[in-house]
Amino acid sequence: MALAIFDLDHTLIGGDSDQAFGQYLAEEGLVDAEAFQAQSRAFYQQYMEGTLDIIAHLRHSLSPLTQFSMDELASLHADFFARKIRPMLLPKAHQLLAKHRAAGDFLLVITATNHFVAAPIAEALGVDDVIACDAEIKNNRYTGEPTGIPSFREGKVTRLEAWLEQHPHITMEGSYFYSDSFNDLPLLERATHAVAVDADDNLQKAASERGWPSISLR
To answer: Which of 9, 18, 105, 198 is an active site residue?
Structure first.
């Protein structure tokens, strides 16, 4: 059994789930559409440039969650998934997951998207576990504050190492990591088999220099 690790956005799904949730909230009139979307676009540009302040981004993404109970949020996510995520699902991604599943590999998603948005998507994809950016919950409601180490850039490696300590029967020997983003270079370099998936220009360049395979799931 090998550990098969997957990024989520633009890798296993054909879009960005965090951005899509912001668009969904704006369309439903649950946030100030113009202001929220403008800030989301600015953060996404920073992400692409490698300059993202992940804590500021998470506070922005988590702030709307404070308005709702957990039951209301579950209902919102179900509707969001049906309308925004389902059209992003990729048959080739399902085939890749099925290939690793058939080989007896452990399937793990690691994403910089917050756990509320990402975890139900990972569950729908049928992976075994998910590491995402955690959010503070008090009195059964989100506070809007991130907590713990964000699973972003080097933080993905840190979070994975902590996860491996809790799963001593799983190691990085023979491991795979699939990602589209240059931001994931620290974890790609940690995996036995790094695979660029529909990669951004910077990752495509790094993959070519390192002899990593490049694939498309689109």
So the answer is: 9
Instruction: Fold for 3-211, please state it.
Output: Rossmann fold (3.40.50)
What is the spatial distance between Cα 148 and Cα 218, in angstroms, rounded to a whole number?
A: 33
Chain segment 72-107, per-residue pLDDT in tens:
999 999 999 999 999 999 999 999 999 999 999 999
Catalytic-residue membership of 7: yes
Q: Where do the domains of the chain lie?
A: 3-211
**0.70 exceeded by the pTM?**
yes
Helix (H, G, I), strand (E, B) or coil at 5: strand
32 is known as an active-site residue: no
Q: For 118-163, how does the pLDDT look when each residue is reduced to its tens digit (9 = 90+)?
A: 999 999 999 999 999 999 999 999 999 999 999 999 999 999 999 9
Sheet holding 193-197, edge to edge: 141-147, 129-138, 106-114, 3-6, 176-179, 193-197, 214-215
